[in-house]
């Protein structure tokens, strides 16, 4: 079953010379992106950047001029939410259009959670509609290929890390290109550390701290992305650039106290800051430079009026590798960080730019989430989206027609780590449940009204039992059992505790 094309897609056909209503499973080599009427799509996902880490989102100490310009040229989202509060399930929600109550990847632990083979991914949907699909950077789902290489999930080409632990290592000895190992010259891993202390079940492939550091991976991913754009300038393309910074090298943090590995501290070298904070700042600067060069490449090829660029982060700011989120006020006015289901863990700085189509300097408070990206891009491209998804296209918001925008009844998250958590958002009402898998603690239910309390400091649960009961019904409705692990342990925290 497929979705019917909506009026928003057909309204888009006026923006390009020829309509794209004749869908092919493979692109016609003689048909360019412009004449096909299908915009190029570049989705830039960074790793562990907080809502307050960009100067266009109130950051005071770090400057991000290129990202700020992206926002000035396009639309800034103030209520766009990640798929989860850690990388694996967040990326799964992005790629499948399903929230964590329905995806087959619900956490980073236990390992081995993979995308279901029968699931249609974002890349598969766009590829079926004639797009060339490529990714560079951190896949972050599953293990080394097989079984969960990007090429098995709709990408024509892929370069980078497969498992998330490998992506901790910014100076790895190898990466994967199209499912095959490719040596990174000059990098040598230090084998003298007691890695088993932190990985008692064995070191995940590629993880570690480099003894010899010749090649940081960030420039490699940028180069690969720029080459992909150049090579596919004459056809419709989807580029998924998943940068693995400003995440920390957790292993370096354990052993050295500083996991913020960068080639140089750049403009922050002389600051009187702890080294991990200089490293974090330099990572933000690296990201900003990459965004600038991506934009420059698109403009130099004359593709800017036919290319949508989206920039966001996979979850809230981390406190790893010696970095502290409050040093740069990384979560801004929000409570919580990575691994929290408070706003700081899941509300993402998000920018969409498409000159001539998205209004420059615009801002939206439309409530959307990662699982909305798949139907949005499918509608944009004139591609059928799967029906078994949770997402709603936010294309009307991008086009400046909010009166046509469908709304979610609620957004839902569940997280199996850190004691087990759930959250549901209905408009400005937010319910959070804690300690679901920790039988040593009673389940805690908290209710917040974000319009009056953005920082989630005043629990209103006792004052609003009817609202709590309503939102708890949504929690039960959205959750489906997950094979192999329960969100609710035995005893006081059994599922019947609702």
UniProtKB/TrEMBL annotation:
The keyword RNA-binding does not apply. GO terms for molecular function: arylsulfatase activity. Residues 1-19 form the signal peptide. Keywords: Hydrolase, Signal. It holds the Pfam family Sulfatase. The keyword Hydrolase applies. InterPro entries: Alkaline_phosphatase_core_sf (IPR017850), Sulfatase (IPR050738), Sulfatase_N (IPR000917). Residues 39-383 form the Sulfatase N-terminal domain. Belongs to the sulfatase family. This is N-acetylgalactosamine-6-sulfatase. It comes from Flavilitoribacter nigricans (strain ATCC 23147 / DSM 23189 / NBRC 102662 / NCIMB 1420 / SS-2).
